[in-house]
User: What shape does this take?
Amino acid sequence: MTPSIINGSQSQGVIRDVFKECKATGVDPNEAYVRYDIIVTGDEGLITETSISRNFQNDVAPTAILGRRGKFDELEVAFQKNYPKLKLQKRQTDLGDQFVSPENLLQVLWAMVPGELLPDEKEPDNPNKVYTYSQRSRCLKAFDNVYDRAHNKADPEYRKYRDLYEFLLDLAPIAWGLYQKWHAHQDFKGTGLRSLERYEDNSIKRVPDGIIFPIMAAHSAFMKMDGVHWKMEIPATISDAELIKSAKTAYMEIADSNPNVMGKSKACYTLLLDLAKLHRKFADMRT
Assistant: This one.
């Protein structure tokens, strides 16, 4: 067993700073005592929980807690099928362009979950996805709950939660790619939407999340199970331009040209979802 410090980074930093200051000023450091506990265990779970529970000095972010407990590991493996150079941000020290926020990824995933897969959804044909835009913590808590129940075969609803969990794994790389595409979709050029960020040549730099999330949620109508895995099948009859046209209508007529209002308006989600479902129904009739 390799010994390690599972907590105490802040204490180490303070001690290091004191010695550095003393050396710089030529002063001998005073005698000091540091309290520490030695825990001998080979139980990785206990190590993780001890680290979390004993972090008195700094708040541990919810994502870091789930990361330390290994709840993002399978999601990361699935995500890396399309993004091998990227990692999920599992610790507060995971910084840099190579890290993707699990909360952001989960927001996008929950937006794309079909209503029939949501265990407690009262309107599976028209689920309320507003929270996916405005409540990151709710998306994280929902994943935490699904993870626990999908890994507990004694749970009476294990199969239902397992199916949902498998969907999240299958769609992780697909959903992230779709999200990146729509965030800089050049078909928004010429729409005149004033909230878009543009480059000097008027090309699209960034589309606000408030506009993106109703579009992402509409893609839930295009989810299909091929017998083993979930995948996305977009009917040939619907184009990105048509989705943008409907998004513009929702943005201007329902959300009063405010992307934040659009992201929180169920009516905007419903408008786009109904369009997607109509094309999905037509495509199913032709097959």
Q: What stands out?
A: The chain has two domains: 1-58, 61-286. The first strand starts at residue 87 and ends at 88. Residues 55-60 have pLDDT under 50 and may be disordered.
